[in-house]
C-alpha cells in the first residue's frame, strides 16, 4: 500500500478510536469537561483545521480511486470478453483480479474515511447540544424549585387537593348514572 493510503488508513483508525471515545458512557461531569475543552481549545481548533485540509486530500484520493476502479473493472470485463474464444492466461487473470481488489480496497478505505468524518462531526455537535440542554434543564429545575419555595407551596397544595376531591366527587356522580341512560345520551 502506498504512503498516502497508509496515512488514510491511520486517519481512519484514529477516527474510529475517536468515535469510540465520543460515544463512551462517561459521567456527566467528565463528559462536560472533555467537550468543553474540545470545543473551546485553540490547539484543538488548529488540529481540526488541519484535519479539514487532509479530508480534502482524502476526497481527491476517493475520486481518483473511484475512477481507477471503474477503469480496472472495464479492463477486466473487456479481457473476459476477448478471452472467451481464445487462450486463458492465469497470470493475466490474477493480475487483473489483484488490480481490481486493490482499486476496490482504496475506494472503500477513502470512502469510509470520508463518511466517518461526517459521522464524527455530527455526533460531536449532537453531544455538545445534549450537554447544553442538560445545563439549561438543571438551571430551570433549580429556578423552579426556588420559586416554588418562595411562593408558599403549602397553599398551592391545599387548593390542588380541593380540586382533586371535587373531580373525584364528580367522577363518582357519573358512575351512579344508570347504564341505559348513559347509552341513551351517547346515542343522541
Present the secondary structure layout.
Elements: H1 3-22, H2 28-40, H3 42-82, H4 90-150, H5 153-175, H6 179-187
Helix pairs in contact: 1-4, 2-4, 3-4
Question: Could you describe the 3D structure shown?
Answer:
With 188 residues, the chain is mostly helical. The protein folds into two domains: 3-151, no CATH class; 153-188. 89% of the residues lie in helices and 0% in strands. The chain is built from six helices and no strands. The protein has helices at 3-22, 28-40, 42-82, 90-150, 153-175, 179-187. The N and C termini lie far apart (82 Å). The relative contact order is 0.09. The mean pLDDT is 84.
Rg over alpha carbons = 33 Å
H/E topology pattern: HHHHHH
Shape: elongated
**What summary fits the major beta sheet?**
none
**Strands, total number:** 0
Number of discrete domains: 2
**Number of helical runs?**
6
InterPro entries: BAP29/BAP31, BAP29/BAP31_N
Protein name: Endoplasmic reticulum transmembrane protein
Domain BAP29/BAP31 transmembrane: 1-139
Main location: endoplasmic reticulum
Amino acid at each position: 500500500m502506498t504512503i498516502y493510503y497508509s496515512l488514510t488508513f491511520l486517519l481512519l483508525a484514529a477516527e474510529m478510536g475517536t468515535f469510540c471515545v465520543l460515544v463512551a458512557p462517561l459521567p456527566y461531569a467528565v463528559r462536560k469537561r472533555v467537550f468543553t475543552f474540545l470545543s473551546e481549545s485553540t490547539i484543538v481548533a488548529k488540529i481540526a483545521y488541519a484535519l479539514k485540509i487532509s479530508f480534502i486530500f482524502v476526497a481527491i484520493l476517493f475520486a481518483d480511486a473511484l475512477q481507477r476502479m471503474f477503469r480496472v473493472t472495464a479492463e477486466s470485463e473487456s479481457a473476459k470478453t476477448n478471452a472467451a474464444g481464445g487462450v486463458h492466461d492465469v497470470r493475466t487473470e490474477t493480475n487483473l483480479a489483484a488490480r481490481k481488489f486493490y482499486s476496490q480496497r482504496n475506494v472503500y478505505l477513502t470512502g469510509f474515511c470520508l463518511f466517518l468524518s461526517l459521522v464524527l462531526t455530527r455526533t460531536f455537535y449532537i453531544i455538545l447540544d445534549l450537554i447544553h440542554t442538560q445545563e439549561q434543564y438543571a438551571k430551570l429545575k433549580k429556578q423552579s424549585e426556588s420559586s416554588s419555595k418562595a411562593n408558599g407551596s403549602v397553599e398551592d397544595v391545599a387548593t390542588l387537593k380541593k380540586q382533586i376531591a371535587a373531580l373525584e366527587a364528580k367522577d363518582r356522580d357519573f358512575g351512579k348514572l344508570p347504564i341505559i341512560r348513559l347509552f341513551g345520551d351517547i346515542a343522541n
